[in-house]
Amino acid sequence: MRDSATIVGLYRYPVKGLSPEALAEVTLEAGGTFPWDRAFAIENGKHDFDPENPKHFPKIKFLMLMRDERLARLKTHFDDATTTLDIAEDGKPALRANLMTAEGRAAIEDFMADYMKDELRGTPRLVHAPGFSHSDAPAKLVSIINMASVRALEEKIGAHVNPLRFRANVYVEGLHAFEDHDWVGRRFKIGGATFEGFHKTVRCAATNVDPATGTRDMEIPATLLHHWDHADLGLYAHVKSPGTIRPGDKLVLED
Predict the structure, then answer these.
(1) Domain-located, residue 66
(2) Does 46 fall in a domain?
């Protein structure tokens, strides 16, 4: 591993399908995810997520960018201390609600019932279970993006590709393109935490949506398949030992 492999960004997504939040540091527990990452999701249709007995559902059950690109026009911020979500639409404040109260959840649901009315299959419902993550992956994982892979993709597309299209937790510079795909089963350190590669990340049509505008303007999975015979870009990893990580930390593979 070259000494130049460096973390350049950390992000979480408190509400599945809504906008990212950049983080200055993250303290991770073994076997966990980023705190509050995908802690909430909005059911679109049948209300069968049970907070008392949470289980993983396919993302198609929820409002999500793969199908509902208008979500990208909403910019959100979640405050851990007050569990309050602020939503702005086209740069203007639209709603503030405490996601841990019945009133706050109802306010979010009413907002989405109006904003997403053409895409809904039923009454939207905000769901949450303590310690549960509504990630696309059923296991508790951290998602990592190699910026060199994004640049390799840019060369084939012939245009800038916003790395936030990939909705990852950790962004790393200083690697060869797709080098991280060889880390499945290997351990590596970032800051004070140790990780183990779990599996490559298969990209879906959500990456075709510009996260700034909500426009579906690229064919990223198709481009990956055409040029590399796979639709993978990025790595899911388990947190094996706890620690705090920050932008600027080095990523070092263990022997």
Answers:
(1) yes
(2) yes
User: In DSSP terms, which residues pair with 119 in a beta bridge?
Assistant: none
List pLDDT tens digits, range 70-79. Answer: 898 999 999 9
Helices 220-228 & 147-157 angle (0-180, nearest 10) = 90
CATH of the domain at 156: 2.40.33.20
Report pTM: 0.94
Question: Is 12 part of a structural domain of the chain?
Answer: yes
